[in-house]
Each structure stands twice: as structure tokens, then as C-alpha cells.
Design goal:
- This protein has 310 residues and is of the alpha/beta class.
- It has two domains: 44 residues, no CATH class; 256 residues, TIM Barrel (Alpha-Beta Barrel).
- The protein is 45% helix and 19% strand.
- The protein is built from 13 helices and ten strands.
- The radius of gyration is 20 Å and the shape is globular.
Length: 310
């Protein structure tokens, strides 16, 4: 038999583990079948029980999102540190698909939710059909969330259909017959987040329409470019920016969705970052982007060097 245990960290569920109880009455073959069945559900179907971001969006708990621009080890570090999700950027970094697959595997081992940002260029006109294909591929590799920088509400409508796409982890058998498919499809939809990134003028102008699209649960207002559109470049908490952010939070809540917003490049130290995140949570932002872990490592190393050598 299999005993499933919740692992707690403080007052929060830190993850799940399972024990295979090797009783003499159960053959080794049956034990392997049972174990595989559990692992199949755990890996293939992110749910509120196994995925921090999905759980937090359901309960209203705030989430922190770290960006990972390099190695899967960074995902494991963030996961062990209790960060809720990570964003891997394929838009402006060297990430390739093989690395994305390894990042997702690292995430599933530490409880952190994988969000993949596929390449796009929202500042050009029209919908890039390759973006939809890339988003589908990210989900097929096991990501909970895919985020795409969009230029219009129509692009989001084109993307949100991916929640019903059945291609997930196709190197494995996901269901065994036609009768099992409806349950598989329902689990796939429930465990999939399509997250539009708003950082172009076209998308910002249609933000209310984007938030009203059925199936959209989270929208990311990418702070840097939003501040530039509003004429206050990289002033992340300027009153003009905060008015837009507060309005977006209100509209999102009316539509059963949530807002993600990121702190800026101007954070001087970790205490300032924590304070900024708390201010954003108090405004009603549900997911706060922390920036790249590589930036944080640089900050820490510079701090150590400055205070030890000068």
C-alpha cells in the first residue's frame, strides 16, 4: 500500500511525499504499478495539492516569483527556500528547450511552480503564430504556467485555448483508454495557467478586455515597460503607475482573476525588496516578481566584498 504524507513547514504545506509500504502480501510488480500510478498523477497533473502557485491563487494567499535565467540548480535553491514559483525567460536569455525541460523537473522535485515565458515581440503588429506553438510546447514539457507578452486581447483569446490542449508529457502514457480521457482533460485544464504579460501599449489599452477573458486567472503587468508607457520610466511605484495597478487589481477581482507585478531594478538591498513586496501585496497584487536570482546573487556578492575588503 502507499501512505501519502503532507510535509509541513511552519503553518504551511511545504509539499507532499509518499512511502511505499512493502508488505509481503503485495508483489513487487504490484508495488511498482501503484507507485507509478501515484507518480503519474503527481508529475502530470499540477493541482492545488501539489503546486504552490495554483494553491495560492485558489486560497488568495500571496505568492513570490523568482526569475531563473540559467541552471536548474537555481530552481532547486528557490524551491527549498520556499519561493512559490519561478519564471524562466526564453524571450531574452539563452534558455533552450532542453534546459526548460530540466528546469521543470527540478521544480517538481522541490514544490515550486514552473512558469515559462516564451519568446515573443509584442511591440510589432499582428499575432505571431509561432508564439502559440511555443506556449503549447512549454506546457507539453510540464509547466504549470506559460506567460506570453501580448499586444492585444485577441492574442490572449488565441492563447487561452491552450488550456484545453491535451498534449502534456507525451513521452509518457497519460491515459489508457477513451473512457479515461475526459478525466485526463479535466485535470489538464485545471492544472494549466495561461498568463498574459502586459508590457505593450496595445495590451495596456485593452487590459480590461484581457482580464474579462474566460479562463484567464492571472495577468502580469511587467513593471519596466509599463512605467515607460506611462511616461515615468523605471519609477515602479510612481502615483501614475500605482493608479493603473490599483485599477487593474479591482478589475481582476471583478472577473475572478489576479494581478502579478514585479519590483524593479532599483532595489538597493534585500530589506528594501521585502518591503516593496509587502507594499504590493497590500495593494492587492497576488504574485510579486522578485527579479532574477542571478541579480540577487550579484547583490549578495557585492555586499560581501564591499563590507569585507572595501
Amino acid at each position: 500500500m502507499i501512505a501519502v504524507r503532507r510535509v509541513f513547514k511552519g503553518d504551511d504545506i511545504d509539499g507532499y511525499t509518499f512511502d511505499l509500504l512493502c508488505l509481503p502480501a503485495i508483489s513487487t510488480k504490484l508495488q511498482l504499478i501503484l507507485q507509478f500510478g501515484f507518480q503519474r498523477c503527481f508529475v502530470l497533473f499540477p493541482s492545488e495539492e501539489t503546486d504552490r502557485l495554483l494553491a495560492n491563487l485558489k486560497t488568495g494567499k500571496p505568492s513570490l516569483c523568482a526569475y531563473v535565467f540559467s541552471h536548474p540548480n537555481m530552481v532547486e535553491v528557490a524551491g527549498i527556500a520556499g519561493i512559490d514559483c519561478f519564471m524562466a525567460d526564453m524571450m531574452f536569455t539563452a534558455h533552450d528547450w532542453d534546459n526548460i525541460a530540466n528546469l521543470v523537473r527540478a521544480a517538481r522535485g522541490t514544490g515550486i511552480s514552473p512558469m515559462i515565458r516564451v519568446q515573443s515581440f509584442p511591440w510589432a503588429e499582428g499575432t505571431d503564430r509561432r508564439t502559440i506553438s511555443d506556449a503549447a510546447r512549454a506546457l507539453a514539457l510540464g509547466a504549470t504556467a506559460v506567460t506570453v507578452s501580448v499586444g492585444s486581447a485577441q492574442e490572449v483569446r488565441d492563447l487561452v485555448g491552450l488550456k484545453d490542449d491535451w498534449h502534456r508529457q507525451i513521452h509518457l502514457r497519460r491515459f489508457w483508454n477513451a473512457e479515461e480521457f475526459p478525466e485526463y482533460a479535466a485535470k489538464t485544464r485545471a492544472g494549466t495557467l495561461v498568463v498574459p504579460t502586459v508590457e505593450s501599449e496595445g495590451a495596456l489599452n485593452e487590459l480590461d478586455d484581457i482580464l474579462a477573458i474566460d479562463g484567464i486567472e492571472l495577468v502580469w503587468l511587467a513593471a519596466g515597460d509599463v512605467t515607460k508607457i506611462l511616461g515615468v520610466p523605471f519609477k515602479y511605484e510612481d502615483p501614475k503607475v500605482m493608479r493603473v495597478l490599483e485599477g487593474a487589481v479591482k478589475t481582476a477581482e471583478q472577473n475572478g482573476a489576479a494581478i502579478m507585478y514585479n519590483m524593479g531594478l532599483d532595489s538597493p538591498d534585500f530589506d528594501s525588496m521585502a518591503a516593496a513586496a509587502k507594499r504590493l501585496f497590500n495593494v492587492g497584487v497576488r504574485v510579486v516578481g522578485l527579479g532574477a536570482m542571478e541579480w540577487h546573487m550579484q547583490m549578495a556578492l557585492e555586499h560581501i566584498r564591499k563590507n569585507s575588503i572595501g
